[in-house]
Design goal:
It is a single chain. The protein is α+β, with helices and mostly antiparallel strands. The protein has three domains: 204 residues, no CATH class; 306 residues, no CATH class; 93 residues, no CATH class. The strands form five sheets. Strands 3, 4, 8, 9, 11, 14, 17, 18, 19 and 20 form a ten-stranded antiparallel β-sheet that branches. The longest helix is centred in the last third of the chain and has 41 residues. The protein is elongated. The C terminus is likely disordered. This is Membrane protein. Keywords: Membrane, Transmembrane, Transmembrane helix. InterPro entries: Bact_TGase-like, Papain-like_cys_pep_sf, TgpA-like_C, TgpA_N, Transglutaminase-like.
Length: 720
């Protein structure tokens, strides 16, 4: 039973590691998990049924045929098909296994699945599966080898001391070998295995993406922030809790604000035709780079500029998000060795930046912030000013009249922007399902009819109204901000935090950010309190550390780790810092003493238990020991005859119950039971002749049914 449980656990961990890699789509993942659950609950008696002898071969051929058809007739990826076949092969083996030899195949497949999970995924889900395999694998391997040896040795017709065939199932059910101590020791083997694995991991960092290039990210890339926004086709923006990025903010107050508005800019659009925003220019050119630094409009100063770190999940198009006062970047792909930002980033229209993805692991980059909080984009050539003032040809005149009415008597562009922003925030209602999207003139309908809409309507309204009063504007899409993660000390920005706002060009200042959406509706919406929020923050923080320190472990981190250890060693060796190292030394000593005490206590308990068992055996006479072995052979004979003794029923009670039931073998069973009881507990001596007589009578009991059946068959044959 223990072997089966451990083998099942190992197989399940291997399959889950494949599913957690994200290589399968949602439906295939659920199909694999459900099939795995059904395979695990198949009873062993069903697996040995003669009618199902060739079931595994038949199912395997069907699966192979289906996968071949998928490759030939569809555009399915060969990698996807192979990984799905590997998972199906394990499920088939689990459902149709017979004996320890098949269980060893299950273990080998599970280990191969774990390796494949390393190549395909490597996320926190894989990490948990890996830790589970470390604990379960030693016990499963030892028990598998032990079981196969037992089954192989006794399958060749071995007999016990009474001359009867060895009861292999009884041996496999025995707890004399596989007890708590055995299981504890085998599972503890995972500790040195883990230590050795961790040592290899630290010594040999990941120096390239290698097979990780096979990872094609079937977890789904975020979609959005392209060069087009249609007011009539914008869906529900604020309902997706999936993590988009993690943002680490420098110089946070204590305590940090639970929610923070950052306006992380992705794409800007300058042309509006009455329904759709687009970019009037289309170009793509590599950015400049100097020592790994990418300037935006000027080079940053790494020595003094504050640094914001952004850990971006995969997104399509691969847009780089920037706060309103960024001066430059330092880019690095997950798992990449060194920094080569000059070949990674490209500049597009309206200050848009994109990266060149080399895998499906997103991007980690540092953003240098202006110390004076100056806007990122400060220039607008006179020749380009006109396109930021263009209005749709069929724009209703009352839209222009409304802009002039709201800004009457207001001369400065900045004041006009604030006035229009305030009108939109206070006189209009936020609504994700705005009816204005279906109107031929969505902006006009929003301003004068429905007066409710989502952020795209607010930003479009402000941009067009300001253009109507000669203030250059452009529409911006990105993420509004995030919620603070108490464990990871970063702000979690989710896909539901996608937002739209306006950039207004002010002479002498540059492109300034304005957000006309009501602040309560534009703020991040993630829950801050409750058990779910607490668990969510813990999982996301753990995932970040795993991605950064395990998946992203490279030569740079190895060098940094060695430098940290070296500096700590030097500080601890100096006379001024000896007091700082003493608490650590005491902590290590206390842990070592606790572990040593635990080991000594365990050895003491084990030694005392062995002494008690030997003392108990020493109190038994040779006849009592022989009687016990003889009665075990009698129990095996009773099992053959269909009258086994229940474990809760004493031997004498069982024999008397058979006699009361007038069983034909009851008198012989009662006589042999009394012989056993007199020798086991009455002090009677069993001679060699008595032992041989007992064994002979047990053999006669086992053959009684065969003789009776043969006699009845001969009687039937002799009758006319």
């Amino acid at each position: 039973m223990v072997h089966r449980v451990m083998t099942d656990a190992l197989a399940a961990l291997g399959v889950i590691a494949l599913v957690a890699s994200g290589q399968f789509n949602r439906y295939v993942s659920w199909a694999i998990l459900i099939s795995l659950g059904l395979a695990l609950v198949v009873r062993e008696s069903w697996q040995r049924h003669p009618a199902l002898r060739h079931l595994d071969t038949g199912i395997l051929l069907v699966v192979i045929a289906v996968q071949v058809v998928r490759i030939v007739a569809t555009d399915a990826s060969v990698l996807d098909v192979l990984v799905e076949f590997a998972a199906a092969l394990q499920i088939i083996r689990l459902a149709t296994r017979k004996g320890a030899a098949h269980d060893q195949q299950v273990i080998v497949l599970a280990l191969l699945h774990l390796i494949a999970g390393t190549v395909l995924g490597g996320g926190i889900g894989y990490g948990l599966c890996f830790l589970g395999v470390l604990v379960v694998a030693p016990g499963a391997l030892v028990l598998s080898h032990l079981r196969r040896e037992v089954e192989g040795n006794y399958r060749q017709g071995a007999r016990d001391r009474t001359g009867l065939p060895v009861d292999v199932p009884r041996i496999l059910r025995s707890r004399r070998v596989v007890g708590r101590s055995f299981l504890a020791v085998t599972c503890l083997l995972s500790v040195p295995i883990f230590a050795f694995t961790a040592l290899l991991f630290v010594i040999f960092p990941r120096v390239g993406l290698s097979l990780l290039l096979l990872n094609r990210g079937h977890t789904g890339r975020m979609i959005g922030f392209s060069g087009k926004v249609d007011l009539g086709a914008v869906g529900v923006l604020r309902s997706d809790p999936k993590l988009a990025m993690r943002v680490e903010i420098p110089e946070l107050p204590d305590p940090p604000p639970p929610r923070l508005t950052m306006h992380l800019r992705g794409t800007a659009l300058d042309a509006y035709d009455g329904r759709t925003w687009t970019q009037s220019e289309t170009f793509k050119r590599p950015t400049e780079s100097d020592g790994g630094l990418v300037p935006i409009e000027r080079y940053p100063d790494p020595a003094v500029d504050p640094v914001m770190r952004i850990d971006l999940e995969p997104i399509d198009p691969p847009v780089i998000f920037l706060p309103p006062n960024a001066t430059g970047l330092r880019l690095k792909h997950r798992g990449q060795l060194g920094v080569d930002a000059g070949t990674m980033a490209h500049r597009g229209p309206e200050g848009e930046l994109r990266y060149q993805p080399t895998d499906e692991r997103g991007l980690v980059y540092d953003v240098f912030l202006s110390r004076k909080r100056a806007p990122t984009f400060q220039r607008l050539p006179g020749a380009e000013r006109r396109r930021y003032l263009e209005l749709p040809r069929d724009l209703p005149s009352r839209v222009v009249d409304l802009a002039q009415q709201w800004t009457q008597g207001v001369d400065r562009p900045a004041d006009r922007a604030r006035v229009i922003q305030e009108h939109l925030r206070t006189e209009y209602r936020y609504d994700l399902a705005s009816p204005s999207g279906a109107d031929p003139q969505p902006l006009d309908h929003f301003l004068f009819e429905s007066k409710r809409g989502h952020c795209e309507f607010y930003s479009t309204a402000m941009a067009i109204l300001l253009r109507a009063v000669d203030v250059p504007t452009r529409n911006v899409t990105g993420f509004v901000g995030g919620t603070y993660n108490r464990f990871g000390r970063f702000y979690a920005v989710r896909q539901g935090d996608a937002h739209s706002w306006v950039e207004v060009y002010l002479d002498g200042e540059g492109w300034m950010t304005f957000d006309p959406t009501p602040p309560a509706d534009a703020a991040p919406k993630s829950e801050l309190v409750g058990a779910w929020a607490y668990l969510r923050d813990f999982i996301e923080a753990t995932s970040q550390r795993w991605d950064r320190h395990v998946v992203g472990y490279d030569l740079n981190q190895q060098v940094g780790l060695l430098q940290t250890l070296t500096s700590r060693y030097r500080r601890s060796g100096s006379s001024g810092d000896l007091s700082l190292s003493r608490p650590r030394i005491l902590t290590v000593a206390a842990v070592a003493l606790a572990l040593g005490g635990g080991v000594l206590y365990w050895r003491f308990r084990r030694t005392r238990r062995g002494r008690e068992e030997r003392r108990a055996d020493a109190g038994r006479t040779p006849s009592a020991i022989l009687a016990t072995a003889l009665y075990e052979s009698l129990e095996a004979a009773m099992l053959v005859q269909g009258v086994p003794r229940p474990p809760s029923l004493p031997p004498l009670r069982h024999a008397e119950a058979l006699e009361l039931a007038e069983h034909p073998l009851a008198r012989e069973i009662l006589t042999l039971t009394q012989v056993y009881l007199r020798a086991r507990f009455g002090g009677a001596t069993l001679s060699e002749d008595d032992s041989r007589d007992f064994e002979r009578r047990v053999k006669a009991l086992r053959g009684a049914e065969r003789r009776a059946r043969a006699a009845s068959e001969s009687g039937l044959a002799a009758s006319p």
